């Protein structure tokens, strides 16, 4: 009778360790997926340099200074590395608000 008892204990311990490892992996992957760096702090919004690369963050309610403009509606990057952040690394707006590719860096 001791054999089945020992085998069951080992099975339970193995299953327990497997469940703990799976739960830990799930929590770690959920944490890494949910953490994304925002483009700007709370109370700020991003603006784009006109005819140039780059941008900055302004306080909500503050208008962009000359040489900067708001991103087109629906094309505002929210997080570092998101779809629009990547897009605006190769594009900008000209002085007429038209989207144009950035010239190659020399």
Describe the structure.
By secondary structure, the protein is α+β, with helices and mostly antiparallel strands. It contains 2 helices and 5 strands; from the N terminus they run H-E-E-E-H-E-E. The strands form 2 sheets. It has a 3-stranded antiparallel beta sheet with strand order 2-1-3, with no helix packed on it. A two-stranded antiparallel sheet has the order 4-5. Strand 1 and strand 2 (55-59) form a beta hairpin. The longest helix is centred in the N-terminal third of the chain and has 33 residues, at 2-34.
Shape: elongated
Structural class, please? alpha+beta
Number of helices: 2
Mean of all residue-level pLDDT scores: 83
Q: Specify Rg, calculated over alpha carbons.
A: 25 Å
* Low-pLDDT regions: none
Main β-sheet description = 3 strands, antiparallel
End-to-end distance, in Å?
A: 79 Å
Strand content: 15-25%
Q: Write the H/E string, N to C.
A: HEEEHEE
Oligomer: single chain
Helix residue percentage:
25-40%
By DSSP, the count of extended strands is: 5
